[in-house]
Amino acid sequence: MSYCVNCGVELEKTEKNCPLCGVEVVNPAQPYDDKAVRPYPKRLDPINARINRQFIAAVLTISLAFPAVLCLAINLSLNGSLSWSLYVTGALILVWTAAVPAYLYRRPTLTRLFLPVLAALILYLFLIARMQKDPSWFFTLALPIVLLSAVLFYLNAWLIIHRKVRGFAIPAMILISTGLLTVGCDITIGLHLGDTWVPDWSFYVLIPCLALAMLSLAVARRQSIREEIKKRLHL
């Protein structure tokens, strides 16, 4: 029986390198045998991994479905109709849409995960508007703000995932998006209230965001400063 000279883990004859630390195995008394039965597979079984993900999805689904069905049953039995339970059910469906599909897709992508959440959020807000019997705020206030937030979030996430922006350019991009979102909310609220569409209070947020974003971009352009900050912050 061989032992790793670096970490001391016990090794099988089928190992050319230590599975724990990767150090090469050298033992003339027990040479490497590639025909021996390996104690574990060379790679993870994709079927088992998929079964585990499906199991997690099933557990989350049951955990969210139980309180939803319970609230619907209690509401229906006490009031004879569905009222407050729809708020709870809609919120749980929204949580399910955000949490479970990531475990169902074999290759989850940003679009596959993001669009169902956006659709569920819009439908949930529309449900609230219909339950309040005054859906006017949904079309003039909620929907524009949600769509603007979704576009900015998706754009930021796509650029980060595909490494179009990196390093200190990421906080700069997020700060600019935050400022633009604030201005959009300011304009939307003004139009909803019947006031002017010219931005007002949002400039107090936009100007600091742009200043900090320019500072981040300046730091990102200076490689020496960036590396020094990483060393100082142990990044």
Note the topology:
Elements: E1 2-3, E2 10-11, H1 46-79, H2 84-99, H3 101-104, H4 110-131, H5 136-161, H6 169-192, H7 203-221, H8 223-233
Antiparallel strand pairs: 1-2
Helix pairs in contact: 1-2, 2-4, 4-5, 5-6, 6-7
Q: What would your notes on this structure say?
A:
It is a single chain. This protein has helices at residues 46-79, 84-99, 101-104, 110-131, 136-161, 169-192, 203-221, 223-233; strands at residues 2-3, 10-11. With 235 residues, it is mainly alpha-helical. The chain folds into three domains: 1-42, no CATH class; 44-134; 136-235. The model has no long low-confidence stretch (mean pLDDT 84).
**Beta strands, count:** 2
Strand order, biggest sheet?
1-2
Number of domains: 3
Strand content: under 5%
Structural class: mainly alpha
Task: Output the helix-strand order.
Answer: EEHHHHHHHH
Number of helices: 8
* Molecular shape: flat
Mean pLDDT: 84
The biggest beta sheet reads:
2 strands, antiparallel
In whole angstroms, the N-to-C terminal distance is: 41 Å
Low-confidence stretches: none
- DSSP helix fraction: 55-70%
Gyration radius, in Å? 27 Å
What is the structure about, briefly put?
The protein is mainly α.
Give keywords.
two-stranded antiparallel sheet; mainly alpha; 8 helices; single chain; 3 domains; 235 residues
